[in-house]
Amino acid sequence: MKNIRFSIHTGLFVLLLLIASIPAAAQNCFDCHDRSDFTDKFVHSPVRKGECSLCHNPHVARHAGLLHQAEAQLCQQCHKDQQQQMAENSYLHPPVREGRCSQCHDPHAAPNAALLPQEGSELCFSCHDGMRRDFKFSHQPFRQGQCSICHASHGAEDTRLLKKDGTQLCLDCHRTDSAWSRKHLGRKAAEMDCLSCHHPHGSDSPLLQRAIQHEPFSQKQCSSCHDRGTNSSQVCLGCHQDALPSFNHVHSHLGIAGAGNACTTCHNPHAGDRQGLLPANVGTVCRNCHGATFDTRDRMLHKHPGWNNCTDCHDLHGADNPGMLKNDGNACADCHKRHAEFSHPMGDKAPDPRDGRPMTCETCHDANTGTMYRHFLRGSGERGLCIQCHQDY
Question: Are strands 137-138 and 91-92 parallel, antiparallel or unpaired?
């Protein structure tokens, strides 16, 4: 009889221990939350262990989802290796920089490794839909949706998040030989930029050459430019004299290369993705010189749509207006037609009381770098910006 009572007591004790060992969150959370939503091929370790309260407060919190901390801070509590990696990179993927880990990773469970909710390039295309294109000839990693072969998903030292310098990245797979050397006029691979002529995703050319090609290049007439004995802008102006008047302004890009060729600072002399032998993303060129502006813009909460299309507002070669704007500082009215007729007083009859200069759109808005305020305002639109001039109010 004593043995029976001992067995019953022992069994009850073990049962109580087992119940006590199950976190309270695991016992209660699934009363309301469907358990199937938290199961998949790959499950986040805290979820698998039933440790819901490791990330969530069951009662009240300052953050959405009842998270203990802001999303990125919470993730980095465990993923310290990623935190260190990101600290070492100059350029971060926007979701990473803005602390939106769950934009790419499911915090509970997912069908793919690293808790990715979609496979291959489909996750990337959910944001970078403009990159989804059908090429006649496509680069194998792009065709197979292997974006991560070339791009780092969190951060890199390259603005395009390339894992290595463009040429070094290409040479990891594409070895050079005598035939390669002949095609490139005997130049050394390390001295070249493969991506200046070849599109890394695809092309109508079997060699993945970019779509728009300089005529001497497409006709294999290299000597037309290379035998001139100089690398100055005069080489380009020898054929493109019609472009010279566009530089004759107060502010000009003609002198940006010093003794070198100012034209090839922006224009690829061989091939490009759009007219003018420029890349599809003009901002890629501008960033080479105006990196500080782009770095500032990356940190801003509100950015002008299409901010990478610098030529929408700025003249590429030269202008008489500060910042090489296309008109007198009110270029915004070209798109914002309503404000051309109804807006804050501007021009010579509306001087800025702070410095006496004529008011323009740029007086209150900073569409160039963006700001932390809505509508790219330079201060709070509720009060902070306006009282700088209207102090009587």
Answer: unpaired
Rounded CA separation 186/226 (Å): 14
Q: Which long-range contacts (CB under 8 A, 24 or more apart) does 266-271 make?
A: 266/316, 267/236, 268/196, 268/197, 268/210, 268/214, 269/214, 269/217, 269/225, 269/236, 270/196, 270/197, 270/213, 270/214, 270/217, 271/196, 271/197, 271/209, 271/210, 271/211, 271/212, 271/213, 271/214, 271/217
Residue 330: how many CB atoms within 10 A of its CB?
Answer: 21
Beta carbons of 291 and 90 less than 8 angstroms apart: no
Both structure tokens of 267? 């224009």
Whether 11 has a pLDDT exceeding 70, the answer reads no
Beta strand spans in the chain (E): 42-43, 91-92, 109-110, 137-138, 155-156, 202-203, 212-213, 251-252, 271-272, 318-319, 347-351, 358-359
Query: How far, in Å, CA of 68 to CA of 25, rounded?
Result: 14
**Among residues 360, 364, 363, 336, which one has the least CA distance to residue 347?**
360
Q: How confident is the model at residue 13 (pLDDT cuts 50, 70, 90)?
A: very low
Indicate the DSSP class of residue 357.
Answer: P
Q: How far apart are CA 206 and CA 37, in angstroms?
A: 46
Question: What are the tokens at 32?
Answer: 């309301």
- Short-list 281, 276, 283, CA closest to 310: 283
The rounded percent of the chain whose pLDDT value lies above 70 is 91
Interval 46-101: pLDDT, tens: 999 999 999 999 999 999 999 999 999 999 999 988 888 888 888 999 999 889 99
- What's the chain's length in residues? 393
Q: pLDDT value at position 6? A: 46
End-to-end CA distance of the chain: 91
Per-residue burial over 84-96, b if 16 or more Cβ lie within 10 Å, else e, is: eebeebebbbebb
CB within 8 Å of 39: residues ≥ 6 apart: 109
